[in-house]
Structure of TetR family transcriptional regulator:
Amino acid sequence: MTHPRPPQPRLRADARRNVEGIRQAALDVFRTSGLTTPLDEVAKAAGVSKGTIYHRFGSRRALIDAVVDDLVAERLRDIIEAVEALDDPLARFEDYLLRMWLLQYDEPAANDVLTRVLPDSVQLTTLCDKANRFGRRLLEEAQAAGAIRPDLTPADLTYLILERGAALRACAGQSRADYARRLDFLLHGLRSWPRPA
Amino acid sequence: MTHPRPPQPRLRADARRNVEGIRQAALDVFRTSGLTTPLDEVAKAAGVSKGTIYHRFGSRRALIDAVVDDLVAERLRDIIEAVEALDDPLARFEDYLLRMWLLQYDEPAANDVLTRVLPDSVQLTTLCDKANRFGRRLLEEAQAAGAIRPDLTPADLTYLILERGAALRACAGQSRADYARRLDFLLHGLRSWPRPA
DNA sequence: AGATTACTTGACTCCATAGTCAAGAAATGT
DNA sequence: ACATTTCTTGACTATGGAGTCAAGTAATCT
């Protein structure tokens, strides 16, 4: 509850160093272990005490907000960009889902964001909404083209992502290849009915 | 670490009453809230102190073992029986999966058992293995009949159950109807390729 | 260099849950 | 009805993580 950083015109040198160090440490630690990692580990990685994190950032949530963009936003942008480059509505929709699901596998932190395993924050909500809206558009288009089952709803799409996150957290050990193979089953189930691969 | 009950020839009257009361309370509490509910709640429901539970049963795991059969075994037997009554291999396989998935929705405790969210115990392991073996048999038969994708492995089948458990725990609010509708997507994805409903 | 102010620290509180145990309560045997 | 034995209790310890704060340390200003 000290200074969440807006009023101070300039931090002292050591404080500036620490803010940066903590950000980097948080990036590292969260990237590899997800957003639920205890702050003590971030502190240790930054060579700083837990108290310092709280003084510099104010709360766990604020620290997450400070790194979530670097952690996830770019990945989402990449996905959107890659998908936009495709033409076929079915390919666009399936590629989108597949890339999201693989992102969830590859980056525990991204998974935590997409599945909201954490105190809500404006940043996070904005990110999720953005991805959601994009996905819904793709869904509509694929359905309009008759490629995806018409009874698949936008809410179902959200669930497909949420569930994957929970599934991943629960079944940790699976290889990426197995994981991807299983995703294929899921995609098949969403296609409009008789249609060659 | 007192007496896990085998040596004593006969408990005192109040102890016998309590054992039964605790079992009933555990059944109730676990049934509605899953096997991860704190033992204090079972104690409260039984009108007994937590210490008594430990004295009578020895550990959390032992208490679970003492009720898991009543909690789950019969449901599994029902499923197996209902499925055995069917003829078509595809119908058998899909009915089995669907019933398992709905059991997971209907009974949090059964879900906890099937997904092993708890200290391993012989009882539990036995139950899971039994269901697993049955499912694998159905899978083989459905694949032999050409009704289910040949690249679906027994391990995949296990994952389908495990994942559903995690998904359920994570996405609590969904209605049974929505849940069932989504299961249909999953089933579709497992079918051998061009085949009418 | 000394005074001032900003910053850091780690020991502390708080919460929730598993599991334990000495002391008191209650059933049983005679 | 009392001695004996069994049982119950609730306060206690332990664990692990979030968040706080008084006291000590170090940058900065003059």
